[in-house]
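Holo model, magnesium ion. Inputs:
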Amino acid sequence: METIILDANKSENIDLCAGVLKTGGTVAFSTETVYGLGANALDEDAVAGIFLIKGRQKDNPLIVHVASVDDVNPLVCDIPDLFDFLVEKFWPGPLTLIMKKSSIVPYNVTAGLDTVAVRMPDHPVALALIRAFGNPVAAPSANPSGLPSPTKAKHVLNDIGGKIPYILDGGDCDVGIESTVLDISGEIPVILRPGSVTYDELRSVIGVVDNFSSPGGSGTAGISGTLRIAESMTDATPKSPGLKYRHYSPKTPLTAVTGPPEKTADYIISRVNEGAAALMFDDFAFSHPYVMTLGRFDDHITQASLLFDTLRKLDDIGVSDIFAQVPEMDGLGFAVANRLLKAAGENIINLS
Ligand code: TXA
Ligand code: MG
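Output:
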């Protein structure tokens, strides 16, 4: 089939894509994080199409996208108090929340789990599509499993062109990396995937809720904020099934180099002189056709927005190795570093 890129500013194009979803088909669409590959979340056969197009493992569950907070009610049972506080602060936006699923959510969406991941994207195109369709939309990132996520319509076309009828083009994705995934189905909230809603931002909301609900909590002092980061980020048997697979990787072998940026830059420059390509921070990079930059060392927002596009461009150079500087693991840097380390798999050099 021919894949057509549609201008999302035209409302008839939104309706065209909603029509495809209504007949059980799949379309790609822009969100603020990365492009999604959407299908009717309540139709098992439609969802099966997503797995087929992505070549995705059946034990890796999908995120269900909604256009309002109220749309979550039919999808879940047991909405924890924390949900209201989190959505008030972070929705619409790049925060995915995991709760106990209701019976209307097919088990292929959740990969057999009794929990479901939900998110309300902060993008007019995604929201308009979900509203025009009138049902929740299951959508993973619109890349074949394992490759860097798409942040431009043309990435989607390169990756899965021929397999879907339309790409709803709402421009380049602002955030550039996928949503933070937070499991609030258990006693203690757990971050399963870091994203642009950071640990500290979550902790500040969770702390206030903890304090109100703890016996004798005054709501003013002693904010606790119990929040865990999943061990699964390094574990062999992670709770978020998606975390165990190789991810975000360019086709060219990528080595992540961690440590002080002066040291990692020196090392990487020596490798570039031997013919490798590199991903470096602006303040450490040098001008070379194989060196691409990711923004300044302390500018995690730019790093996130450029990461996947730059990994794709490095791949296109066609050398046999890519080396990358890794940002500091604070704030949004934690999420950027997580994607780079996952993309590198076993290939990590620590110079600290
Ligand atoms: O920003 C995003 O989240 C993008 C856009 C399109 O919304 N979507 C995205 O979806 O990144 P995907 O499928 O590439 O990643 C979904 C992640 C996976 O790591 C998956 O394992 C996890 O969410 N996940 C989904 N449902 C889960 C559940 N019930 N329990 C644990 N993890 C879950
Ligand atoms: Mg993905």
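The first strand starts at residue 4 and ends at 7. Residues 4-77+96-169 form a domain with the DHBP synthase fold (CATH 3.90.870.10).
Archived with the compound record.
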